[in-house]
Amino acid sequence: MRLSGLTESKSFIQCHLMDNKLLVHKHLIVRAEVYRPPMDEEFLRRWLNEFIEQIGMKVMMGPYVQYSNMVGNRGITGAAIIETSHIVMHIWDEVHPALMQFDVYSCGEFNPETICKKIDEDFNVAKINYKFLDREHDLKELSKSNS
Question: How is domain 23-144 classified at the CATH fold level?
Fold first, then answer.
């Protein structure tokens, strides 16, 4: 099939990608209060690499990790581009317990309970909440924590 122009080509590709049943659009948003927050850049870089491998994803770029010493916003952020989208963690460690915001967006399948359990085991969670969304056609809530 010959397409005459970039706009038609993009539409053709987008249409066929949307029909690809292998792709999903899942988004996990986690808010946790943790007693053992990561504060070291190298530790969080290693943790993100191991985490991404454990959930069956593949790193494309990163993880990029940076600690901020800005008063009122002190903490660490790590981000990785994965083959199927991205993973980002923010920690504010001036409060106790520390505040963690964690975001996993992927076009591949993953289990939110497994991710929350990993966070609990590694960072000693005081409280954790999440929302798990299907973003393929809208923002359909698939599940959320009960706490």
Answer: S-adenosylmethionine decarboxylase (3.60.90)
